[in-house]
Amino acid sequence: YQGRFGNNLFQFAAAKIVADRFNLNIENPLVQSILPHENIFQPDSGDDISLNGFFQTPTVVGEFGSLNFAPIEEKEGTFVHVRLGDLLESHSQSGNRFASADYYRKALTGTGSGYISSDSLDNPIIKELCAEFNLQLYQDSPENTIKFGAAFSKKVLSLGTFSWWIGFLGNQNNVICPNPLDFPRWHGNIFPRQGWNIC
């Protein structure tokens, strides 16, 4: 596994698809054939497959529908995910990689209330959005945050794999994300999914 929780979910989901398709078990680490992203669903030979990568491609994402995810009961309302922490700190020299407060304001127009989660709950952007849109802070484990956020009927995402999973799981009808072309590319070609709204 490489990266943080959202990346790890991509890696596990890709491994699960390959394991199911070729009747294999997932075991870490596998040390034989290493397959590039594009060919993970068509191994050339051998019984052991070692997957190495982030698997953030439209081809891999297109296969995620074959996985049997637990159903998520939909909740009325809005969930907002704001990623700031590591983008503010470790990527400050490589360009602006996080959406501005204006993006969230535009996406939240007409929203009466809801929840907001972030890796930087003390950031002024979070405090401003809470006050302007009557949002309650939500803080829990990564797993619970994704499950909680994914259940809402309206989801406002940031860029990155963690936020992507909030959008992908549960309701797909009212998902809003930033335009990835407005930011330096630091994740795979996964935004937006078909039907998601760019704001």
Quickly count the helices.
7
Main sheet summary? 6 strands, parallel
Quaternary structure state of the chains depicted: single chain
Give the tally of β-strands: 8
Rg result = 18 Å
Sheet with the most strands: spatial strand order: 5-4-3-6-7-8
What would you say this structure looks like, in words?
The protein has 199 residues and is an alpha/beta fold. The chain has helices at 5-21, 58-63, 85-89, 101-107, 124-133, 142-150, 161-168; strands at residues 33-35, 49-51, 75-82, 114-118, 135-137, 152-156, 175-177, 197-198. Strands 5-4-3-6-7-8 form a six-stranded parallel beta sheet, with helices on both faces. A two-stranded parallel sheet has the order 1-2. Helix 7 (161-168) links the parallel strand 6 (152-156) and strand 7 (175-177). The protein is elongated, with a radius of gyration of 18 Å.
Q: Helices, strands, pairings?
A:
Elements: H1 5-21, E1 33-35, E2 49-51, H2 58-63, E3 75-82, H3 85-89, H4 101-107, E4 114-118, H5 124-133, E5 135-137, H6 142-150, E6 152-156, H7 161-168, E7 175-177, E8 197-198
